[in-house]
Each structure stands twice: as structure tokens, then as C-alpha cells.
Design goal:
Blueprint lengths: L8 E4 L4 E5 L10 E4 L2 H9 L6 H18 L5 H16 L6 H16 L3 H31 L5 E6 L14 H10 L3 E7 L6 H12 L4 E4 L4 H6 L5 E4 L3 E2 L3 E5 L2 H10 L4 E4 L22 H4 E2 L2 E2 L12 E5 L5 E4 L2 E3 L3 H10 L6
Helix pairs in contact: 1-2, 2-3, 2-4, 2-5, 3-4, 4-5, 5-6
The site of 5-S-methyl-1-O-phosphono-5-thio-D-ribulose (MRU) has 19 residues, from helix 2 and strand 9.
Length: 352
Amino acid sequence: MPGEIAYTIAWDAENDCIVYIDQTLLPGQYEVACCRTVDELADAIRRLAIRGAPALGIAGAMGVALAVVRSGERDPVRFREGVSRAAEALRSTRPTAVNLARGIDRVLGVINAAVSVEAAKEAAVREANAVAVEDEETCRRIGAFGAELLPEMCTLLTHCNAGALACRCWGTALGVVRSAVEAGKEVRVLACETRPLNQGSRLTCWELNRDGIDVTLITDSTAAYLMRKGVIDCVIVGADRITRDAVFNKIGTYMHAVSARHHGIPFYVAAPVSTFDPAKSEEEVIVEERDRAELARCGDRMLAPDDVAILNYAFDATPLDLVDAIVTEVGVLRPPYAESFRLIEGKGGFER
Ligand code: MRU
């Protein structure tokens, strides 16, 4: 395995496999891992070794390509059946981030349009790579639009990791930070640790620190107090799915939105158009619930009694009326969102 890779997740054309930074090991260890089968990929996604909505979109697309190149089936019907079983296995790994399903469906689309099994193999890898390349362009555009929202000097709060590690590179919310810093703005980031899996302390702090961007780690529960003290100029987070009425993002996002509104602080979401799902409302989305061990244990150490009931939601939903702007690659959306959603639909947005 290479010592370092340029992207969080990439297709290795020489070995027909997916290489990725194993995010479960950061910040202590930087390790590049590889998935050779769909089962290995599904496991990496469930363990959050690959995570973050746009990166999941790329993983879904590359996962279908992996199923295709690994298939020894010559019969077109049985070939398609096998690929479709693999696609459904990947789709079920994480239900909340819509990008995963979008990436899977994009590659299934080109496979279904291909005239032969051989043509399907080539088209699948090409399309999966296109999903990855587009993600980088998208993040750069989100960054450029979002940077304009930030004052010349500011302290912003972010939750979870919506950075390079959650995408091919650059990031959505942290892409805005990177673009603002690149444009000469003085940005200080307050990163919430993001219990229970600590994507904020482990990943956001790691990648910003590495890029020399000013970052300070706080506990999730410190955020409201710092808003009250007037320390925070704005909040910016990513999204896993944006329905017609709510933004789904890492658990804890909603409490930051409520606190921000209470203190008159702008609350921004940065997300690609591929994260929008306006055909659905909040109630129709499955919010992933994760294993009790994430709350009850830290390694070998018990953090809760064995028999206590545990509710471990991975995401929450923030009603759109608490969101001051959504930064996308086609521009900054403002309320009323029903109207601005119609505008991006016209710009080629909203894959279904
Ligand atoms: O459970 P995770 O780590 O996959 O959750 C990720 C988030 O909640 C991110 O904020 C979201 O995917 C946006 S990433 C650009």
C-alpha cells in the first residue's frame, strides 16, 4: 500500500480495487487500506473507515464498479442480477446519506445502458471515476461561494467532519474554510468533538491542523456557551440529506442550529446538489441508529452499566427554518427554500 494518497478514496486501476484512508485509525495512525470485494467495502462503510456523504457517494459508485470488474459472469442476465445484488448490499449499509444511493444508481444506470458485459465493465469504472472527479470540482465551487459569506476575520463553529476526509478532497463546510483562507481571510475554526465517534476531534482537527488552519477543539456542549459569550460569528456544517423541510446531519447539529438562532448567529449548511432529496419530507427518512457499544464502551473501559437502555442516533434533522443559507456548487440558496430549490432544479440539479 502507498504511504499516502492524494485523495480520501480512489480507484486503483492497476489492481482493480478501491484505495482509501482508513478513518477509524486517525489521528493516531495514517493508513491506506484497500477493498478488493464488495463485502470488504460494505464492512469499511459500516465501520466508518470510509464515511461522510460525498465520500459515500464515491464509495457507492466505485463499489458497483468493483462488483462489475470482479464478476466472472458472461451471461448478461446473470451478470446484471449479480451486480444488482451487490448494489443493494451496499445501499443498505448506511440509510441516511442519500449520496450513497445516488453514487450506486449512477453506475447502475450506465451498466444497464451498456450493450455487452465487456462494455459495462469499462463504462462502470469510467462513471465511478467521473463521480469522484466531479466531487472535487463541486467542493471547490462550494468553497468559492461559501467563502464570500464569511467576514474578513471570523470564528466559526463546525460539527462532525465535512472536510477533505468526507469527500474526495477539499470538503464542503471545511472547503468553505479552505477557500476563505486561500482568499486571505483570517478564519478560526472551533471544532466540536462530535460524540460518540469523535469525527470532530479525530478528523476535523487532524486535517485542519495538517493544513495549518487555526482550529480549536471544544466539547459539543461548550458550543452554546461560546455563542452566549459572543465568540462565534457563524456556524457551518455539512449535510447527509436535505429534504424539502429539513437538513439531516450528524447528531448534535440541531442543537447548534437552535442555539445559533437564539443568539442571532447565522447557521449555514454547505452541501452539493446531490445531497438534496426534495421529493421526501423529514418523516420519510430513516435515521441510522448505531450499536450501543459506541456509547457504552471506550476500548476495554465501561462507560455505562451493561443493562442500561441506550439510544444512539447517528444523525438528526434541523428544520429548514433554522437554516440561514445553503451553500451549493450552483450558488447560495436562501429562504424561502421552496423557491430556491426550484431554481437549482432548473440548473440540472436533483438527481432522482
Ligand atoms: O457518520 P458520518 O461520519 O458519516 O457522518 C458524517 C456527517 O454527518 C457529515 O457532516 C456529512 O456527511 C457531511 S460530509 C461533507
